Amino acid sequence: MSHKEAFEALDRTLTDIRENIIFGGTPLVIAGDFRQTLPVIPRSIPADELHACLKGSYLWQLVEKLHLSTNMRVHLHNDTTADSIDGQITFPAEFGHNVETGDDLKDKVHPNIIHHFTNKKWLCERAILASRNDKVEAINMSLLNKLPGLNITYKSIDTVVEQDDAVQYPTEFLNSLQPPGLPPHSSSLKIGAPIMLIRNLDAPKLCNGTRLAVKSMIPHVHEATILTGPATGEDVLIPESHSSL
């Protein structure tokens, strides 16, 4: 569900463009369950999410509430065809390949990776998506360990902006954080390993989401080959960078 400020901004805009009444007199249907679709507030507590939903807005008292009373899932309980359905679905063969385990998935997407990882075209044609960063990290480490060569680990230097906060937020705590949009405190690399930029460095060549392959690792800078985008095949230097929250 959208943040209450989004509804309030829409109300102000329509009121300014149309009439001086709620949403400018435009009927607006809002559907959802506040127990399931609260706004997502980064680094917040449950109370912040409750306060950010539409119920916490001045608009809520002007909303006409309609409640659904019929459960359509059980409304057709007398339908005899319901008994013939086991609740399972079958994917057609052309939909994709089903695998049983995570190892099978990695072998299916990156077969014989040790023999193909130097092929840049082969690398940029495949990727594994996951719903959580910890799963992505586990998959990355598993595939990285299959590559030949020395595994070099890089660690971030995490500090607080205000030194007065150093006691409240010790370095060990900062190292444990994994905020969205930032890499983990510890990252491992090998020559030939695919990597991805997570910030814009030199648009349109080096943008957030650009995929590259590590070519060499020099102190304070990495040399990499671009795998995607308008500069595919070009070698670039990726320097150390500073990020803040």
From TrEMBL:
Transmembrane segments: none annotated. GO terms for molecular function: 5'-3' DNA helicase activity; ATP binding; hydrolase activity. Residues 172-215 form the DNA helicase Pif1-like 2B domain. The keyword Secreted does not apply. InterPro entries: DNA_helicase_pif1-like_DEAD (IPR010285), P-loop_NTPase (IPR027417), Pif1-like_2B_dom (IPR049163). It catalyses: ATP + H2O = ADP + phosphate + H(+). Its EC number is 5.6.2.3. GO terms for biological process: DNA recombination; DNA repair; telomere maintenance. Keywords: ATP-binding, DNA damage, DNA recombination, DNA repair, Helicase, Hydrolase, Nucleotide-binding. Its cofactor is Mg(2+). Belongs to the helicase family. This is ATP-dependent DNA helicase. It comes from Oopsacas minuta. The lineage of its organism: Eukaryota, Metazoa, Porifera, Hexactinellida, Hexasterophora.
